[in-house]
Amino acid sequence: MPDSAQPVLVIGGGPAGLEAARAVASIGGRALLVERRDVLGGTPDESSYAALTPRMGSAQEALDALRAGVEDPAIDVRRSTTLKACSGSVGDFRVTLSGPAGESTESVGAIIVATGFQHFDPGRETQMYGYYEHADVITLPDAEKMLKDHRFVRPSTGEPPRNVAFIQCVGSRDRRIGNEYCSKVCCGVASKEAIEIRRLLPDTKVYIFYIDMRMYGFWENEIYWPAQEQHNINYIRGIVTEIVAKDGRLLMKGEDTTMGRPLEVLMDVIVLSVGMEPSRGTRDVAGILGVAQNKYGFIALPGEPMDVVTTSVPGIFVAGAAAGPKDLEDTVGMAGAAALRAVGVVRGAAGAGAGGAGAMAAR
Amino acid sequence: MPIPLTVLETRREARDDRGPGTPPTEDVREKVFELEAAGEWLVQRVPDPWIGVTTKYGRTKKIPVARTWHHKSCGQCGHIPGYSTSIFWLIRKLGLDYNDPRDQTSCTAWNYYASATSNQGAQAAVAMRNFGAAYESGYFPMIHCGTSYGHYKEVREELVHSAELRDEVRRICDKLGKPFVMPEEIVHYSEWVYAMRDEFAKRRVLDLSGIDVTVHPACHYHKLVVEDAIYDPDVYGGQRTAVVSAVVTTLGANVKDYSTWFDCCGFGFRHILVQRDFTRSFATLRKIEVMQEEANPDVVLTHDTGCVTTLDQSQFAARAHDRKVGVPVMSEAQFAALAMGAHPYRVAQLHWHNTEYRPLLEKMGIDWRERWREFEDDLARLKGDPKAFLTWEDADA
Amino acid sequence: MSVVLQARYDDVPIEDKARLFGQVQADPRFQTYLYGCYECGICVAACPSARFYDFSPRKIAQAASRQDLPMFYEQLNDDIWNCSQCFSCTRCPRGNNPGGLITIMREVAINNGLTSAKNALEGYGRVVYKIMSTGTQVSPDMLQPNAFPDWGPHVQEISDNLGLWRRALPPDTMHTTSTAWEVDDRTLTELYLIWHMTGVLDMIKSVDAGLHMILNDVMEELLEEAGFEAG
Questions:
Q1: CA-based angle A290:A296:A298, to the nearest 5?
Q2: Are B321 and B236 in contact (CB under 8 A)?
Q3: Facing residues of B53 across strands?
């Protein structure tokens, strides 16, 4: 039965899910937060993010604050738990959860999907960057892990690199891969990591090879300009076709398009700026809930651009990168909006009985 | 300090968690069958038995074991005849049935890419005429040339996506009296060699453990309509085509890497014929010299007509300029045949090759002086009888 | 708005350039060979010709994307014949095929009998003759020392022994010297018919009238014998 005390199911304990659950509780609702892993924090935790773009604040501190937000009697946090099945409709969903104590069935009034993204696998056969061949070819999250420990070395030798290059748009904006979209954050994250590397290793030269640098809004002055003006990071407009080994180092082949010449340079470490793809959780959960996905597998938003949280199924909302590439600002913004809508439909459904009114409210 | 092996192993383990992605391209073979169902053309099925291999986006491709119709290569038959002969020899060695047709023309794509003195309709008609001929013979097309293979895949794409082109070519085939047929798979001989590599290894008679090989992949094999090429996670981390390289390893020789692996050979289609300064420079400076400096190979193996010609013939002039050249070049089919005891002159026909190959033969344990003497005896015999030819029986005598 | 950079061939009317560009655009393959261009240079990075010539597949794609007619026309004359047609440039993230675009541009150059196309094919006529009249592009008897002086004395050796060495080949389709393998007459007839029906012979006429005449003579006879009406 619809009931104004029905909880909102929040699937995913990353920044979007944590913030959504906190927001549900803060406006008087109840939340049931389920997380696949045994810790909260999502991808920023799993991938060991060090400093957050653009202001270089500690990722750990930010995550701690988010985790503290769900320490609330109105939020039932279930770790190591996944969604197995779902039936019912807005105001009165029945969900089957599988956790450490076995399976259980719960009644929830609305659902917020916050299952996030995964980093593009740069070792995919469409790439010629040798991620599975050369230890010194790494990804943004691989670099992030090292930077979190305040070190940056060539994985093959443990020595600090003299020359480091970032390659942008790996797994994004690529028709051949099937990911035609921009992943939004990689330009900023790469520049941020480049600055961190320069701070750690002042003698190391750092290059960023790009198609377009997309440093929108304040990321421009907070990241891009300082990277060039204070940290002497070299931005070269041109993208790299392949990486091969030469003389124990990495040879990358590109074109310096503004100079109009093919370019072959030796690097010690090459960081692939991998984009975002829907996580397996996003794909699985979308299937179980029956919400529409776009052609890339992200959760579709029929009401865009004015409604960025409502999915194709009444009573089911989405927050964060499950709906497409997002930065953290967008993610927590969506989480708040989703919480508001979710609590709204729970209350609306309780007021009007099951079905219609809730579905209306969902639109 | 982490050692690289651990780094890469950890990565590869994590890779399995990600699961296979959805292929970014449509499976053109499904469209080929849809068009058959719509009555647009016939589809020639891959005959049983076939071997399943994995292509770029994780799909399975059927490689016929036998009953193959050999779409020969003009450059191989014309200038590197040991190439085609070795392919046939391998098939015969395994006791398999094949068809070496006279009702076959070149794909004419070498000319098309060189001079553009042709057009889409003509190119598609040539392809479909040859496919029609294969169908009539009851044998399944196996394409010897990388360019024919790449070009026929282009033609297949174009035919699948254009009703007008299908109509034009169907009309031509009708007039020629040829059936309008698309094969279920477009198969390159090097895919068959890859699929059969364990059979070759079983029949290997030479120890190749001391032989270092650099591989040159043919552009028209792996860059032109990319999704049909064979990839294997165990070869180059699955990011480069596995043909040739996997065969070398299976035969017990050593694959050596070099930094211009992805580069083309410099053939250039028109350049090899009328602008060879480019071809020679590219082949020697970008390929052979780099291989020499970085890998010091005993031999370069490749799997296409133009690549063998370019890499082999270009070295002569470079020698005059004191460039670091002098690596013998042949196809992996010739190399596999030699490894299985094929005669270097009667079968591999190495006297048609330019760059010095005798030190390689010695290293492989082949007595080339004795073999050449035998071949000279063959030639003397043939000279005495203008109607006589070297037979397959002679080849293995 | 179109950004027009300074280009050569100022004397050629822009209408002519537009007409030729229109022919390139009208090719059914054009739409899948050129989507849009990031101008990222990955094609140049992969391009062999870019390493030895002042040649850029990026600029070919860029000019066509921008519909920069003067630049297009300059490339049509001065650049496209430098391409190696290896298709390394299909590495493009946008799914462009600059090499394929060049194939189309070359076809247009041939069809319109551009002087630059004729120059590019100088010395190539014998190859066109061989492929169109025999069905195999290269033949053993093309290995003549005067044709391949840079391949060394080895070519002379092959040429001296050609007939004998060809007979020393086990596959019996390969005992030929003037074709790569033995092609049936019926097969050749069918090939000739294809050249006729698809207008390829007419293309030859526009770049080499003499060659066209010879080919026509060769083909006519066989086609008539086989009971086909040529042309």
A1: 50
A2: no
A3: B61
pLDDT > 50? residue A159 = yes
Instruction: Please judge whether C180 and B74 are an interchain contact, meaning their C-beta atoms are less than 8 angstroms apart.
Output: yes
Q: What is the largest CA-CA distance in chain C?
A: 66
pLDDT over 90 (residue A259): no
* B180-228 tens-digit pLDDT: 999 999 999 999 999 999 999 999 999 999 999 999 999 999 999 999 9
Cβ–Cβ gap B257/A244 under 8 Å: yes
Put simply, the answer to whether A121 touches B8 (Cβ < 8 Å) is no
Distance from CA of B126 to the nearest CA of C (A): 7
B24 SS3 class: coil
C92 and A CB contact within 8 Å: yes
* Chain A residue with minimum CA distance to B291: A246
* CB of C150 less than 8 A from some CB of B: yes
Closest Cβ opposite residue A131 in set B11, B231, B260: B11
Q: How far apart are CA B58 and CA B242, in angstroms?
A: 13
Structure tokens at B57: 């986006």
Q: Quote the crossing angle between the two packed helices B120-137 and B163-176, to the nearest 10°.
A: 50
Q: Which of A128, A238, A253 sits opposite C40 (nearest CB)?
A: A238
What pLDDT band is residue C223 in, cutting at 50, 70 and 90?
confident
Neighbours of chain B (3+ CB pairs under 8 A): A, C
Q: C residues 37-76 near B, CB within 8 Å?
A: 46, 48-49, 51-53
Among the residues of C3-143, which ranges form H helices?
A: 14-26, 30-33, 42-46, 49-52, 57-66, 69-78, 98-111, 115-120, 125-134
Going through chain A in order, the beta strands assigned E by DSSP cover 8-11, 31-34, 75-78, 82-89, 92-99, 102-108, 110-113, 117-119, 137-139, 163-170, 205-210, 234-237, 242-246, 249-256, 261-267, 269-274, 276-278, 316-318
- Residue A285, pLDDT > 90, answer yes
pLDDT tier for residue B6 given thresholds of 50, 70 and 90: confident
Are B121 and B168 in contact by the 8 Å Cβ rule? The answer is: yes
Q: List alpha helices for A94-148, DSSP H.
A: 140-148
| A265 in contact with chain B, both atoms CB, cutoff 8 A | no
Kindly report the nearest CA distance between residue A241 and chain C, in angstroms. 5
Looking at beta carbons, which residues of chain B come within 8 Å of C23? none
Query: pLDDT band for position C5 (50/70/90)?
Result: low
What are the Cα distances from residue B342, in Å, to A254, B37, B349?
43, 45, 10
Mutate to test the interface with B, among C102, C148, C174 (most CBs of B within 10 A): C174
Selection from A14, A84, A19, A1 nearest residue A342 by Cα: A19
Q: What are the chain A neighbours of C92 within 8 Å (beta carbons)?
A: 176
Interchain pair C187, B104: CB under 8 A: yes
* CB-based contact A299:A137 (threshold 8 Å): no
**CA distances from residue B63 to B4, B49, B69, B91 in whole angstroms, order as listed:** 36, 9, 13, 14
So what's the pLDDT on residue C206? Answer: 86
Contact (CB, 8 A) for C12 and C74: no
How far apart are the C-alpha atoms of B338 and A306, rounded to whole Å? 70
Radius of gyration of the CA atoms of chain C, in A? 21
Q: List chain C residues with CB under 8 Å of A174.
A: 93
Q: A175 and C35: CB-CB below 8 Å?
A: yes
Q: Is the pTM of this model over 0.80?
A: yes
For A194-227, give one letter per residue: b (16+ CB within 10 A) or e: bbbbbeebeebbbbbbbbebbbeeebeebbbeeb
- End-to-end CA, chain A: 21
Q: Is A76 on the interface with C (CB under 8 A)?
A: no
Model confidence at B20: pLDDT above 60: no
Cβ neighbors of B14 (< 8 A, separation 6 or more) are none
